[in-house]
Amino acid sequence: MADLRSTFIGIKSPNPFWLASAPPTDKEYNVVRAFEAGWGGVVWKTLGEEGPPIVNVNGPRYGAIHGADRRLLGLNNIELITDRPLEVNLREIKKVKREWPDRAMIVSIMVPCQEESWKAILPRVEETDCDGIELNFGCPHGMSERGMGAAVGQVPDYIEMVTRWCKQYSRMPVIVKLTPNITDIRYPARAARKGGADAVSLINTISSIVSVNLDNFAPEPTIDGKGSHGGYCGPAVKPIALNMVAEIARDRETHGLPISAIGGVTTWRDAAEFISMSAGTVQVCTAAMTYGFRIVEEMKTGLSRWMDEKGYQTIEDFRGRAVPNVTDWQYLNLNYVTKAHIDQDLCIKCGRCYAACEDTSHQAIMKEKDGARHFEVIDAECVACNLCVEVCPVDNCITMVRQTEGVDPRTGRRIDPSYANWTTHPNNPMAMKAAE
Amino acid sequence: MAQTKPDITGKRLSVADYATNFGDLHPPLDAHEALVESDRCYFCFDAPCMKACPTSIDIPLFIRQIQTGHPKSAARTIFDQNIFGGMCARVCPTETLCEEACVRETAEGKPVKIGLLQRFATDQLMADGVHPYERAAPTDKKVAVVGAGPAGLACAHRLAMHGHSVKVYEAREKSGGLNEYGIAAYKAPGNFAQREVDFILGIGGITVEHGRALGRTLSLAQLQADFDAVFLAVGLQGVNALGAANDDAEGVTDAVGYIADLRQAGDLSGLPVGRKVVVIGGGMTAIDVAVQSRLLGAEDVTILYRRGPGQMKASKYEQDLAQTKGVKIRHWTIPREVIASNGKAVGLRCEYTRETDGRLSGTGETFDLAADMIFRAIGQTHVDVAGGKLALDGGRIKTDDQKRTSLRGVWAGGDCIAGGQDLTVAAVDDGRRAADSINQFLKG
Lengths: 436, 444
Known about the structure:
A: alpha/beta; Alpha-Beta Plaits; 22% strand; B: FAD/NAD(P)-binding domain; 17 strands
């Protein structure tokens, strides 16, 4: 049996599945039930300053993109940080941590970008005996208008400054939560590291408007005829998150910086992918909000079975294994030649590959043979773009077959088994000449 | 032989049972089911389902229109090709047409439910009570259509769209043809056939005169003289004989007529049905009368067919349906003699058959079946009502691909023409094609 235990910046949890800071971790009742269901840890819903609590809208907070049969693919929210009094949250955090000592208890914090605000809240949080703090520099709505959340996360200097205060005024491990609403994720990540962050977590939600009501022309969710952009999350954002995690993992300045990955983790497979991209833990929210706490069971058994099948005993055995394989386009092997191949026994003759290739790609699929409906790749035209593979409704019907010898019928060039990339390609005016 | 007395009577069931038995065979999809089902469509290139549809409905397009929230646009796509799209959605043997061709049938044996999706779309639009088409500017041309069944009304509708004025002559009291008098009740409950006729006539420019039959109160020559063109869609009037001894005994009935009575019965409990029913035949009519006899409360219902299951004209799906409803199908046997007592049928003597080199013959072995009601469902025949003026082919009216007959100015379609498939959807296609051809002729 695979060992799912995780030690992340010194914080131990029985598995790497944490609930992200969000409504599921809003209060003792939820968090206790989550722990009972088997979650490895939680990041408590973001605490704000002492004083009158935040208020939320009294209308809808969520909007969504659905697939067939209303499968929820993307979720958008305009909820703010906790709307419960600070002392209530602190009391509950302390109690739950005492009762569940083996689970990770991280506290998310968002206070104004002033030294005294952080200096005031940090000791009070530390007093709960939580395992660490997560700095919410990510929320793109509401709080950012007040100079917090993403407004901080979009300015690397602020990230560095606040992170430094947190390290200065507390002994707790500091995780900096990054917003994806920036141009290059590496800059805020570098700033976090410079400020002394123990880890980063990403991504927070993406600024979004999920839909417009075509009767009253209001963005949804709609509050009295108006809408505001929210934060987008759920399965739809996973590819964006995965890329940003990879960017940080392979950046020279942030390589090795521990990462708690967030963004559309819905199944064990998503988790395995993020961990292979160097994440030490994954944080889940939308999947729990869609299916309830019980889904963690599938995530744990799924990850465990996969690890057993692959012979990995611990998370560390495969963590980061995908990072060296992420490279820049210019280093991809231009001598690598593949051709699409349609398995005629599996083909159901829907012709989607043909329509896609003929109308939008390279006219490399024939639709007829000997007068009969028949779809077959024309190697002399196929650039191996993979579009046919992606539009085919049948698993493994169309595959990419590597050509290792002979001549590529499209280019007329002999297959060269050696590696060659753009940096040395004759068409590249910037090509580095080996001799020079 | 028979241990029971002849017993042909109504009121075999409770009122509630009749309602249940003759309700929708396939309940319609609700809006969510339609969305989920429509999402299964792959939007195939040069879609096989569309090719398999006799009226060439753009099936992938209409399914996508349902999926994107516009079932009424979907209905429009359907009606563009087939104004009887509502009835065809209910009665088409989709398992041998579009759904058999569906690539999901190939992939997983579960085709997209095209028929039910078509019904969903057409129901939505028809519920508006607004006819979706406008007529072209009226022409001064007049066309006579004989027969207000699917072929006749499809032709009339398309001609009306082209701006011509159409007079439809119908022998029976109601329009609709076999939709009204022929198909099984549970395939189109709720008086759908008449609602659809009203929907189609909603285009305007069409008048229907009932009680007018070609060869009796109408002559082809007069129609030719009075109109600019004539379309014949007279269906089949003859019924094949049983060819068994004693087949005039009381209780031996023609299935087509019985189904018509059933369809017109206001109160099904008043329709007498035998206790032990035997149906002779292997087509849709045989299945329909057998299943409906069971649903009316007959105790034993047996279909006799002279060859094997693969040769029955009724699809495998329909055969399965009959068996699910408790009908027994006996293959390789033919009726030889109706056994009667006091002039009433009490049984049927049957002979086993075999096929040798494609020829069917009796084996000489016989068995007896108890039967107080025996239905002939062995096919219908064309009766020449045009006074021998039209060229025939295999006993039915000969037409070309535009449905022109051998007489200039006379077109024909539906079951009365050679090559007719005895399908509503094929009749509709004939009518539409003929209308377009007539329109070209009238413009020329």
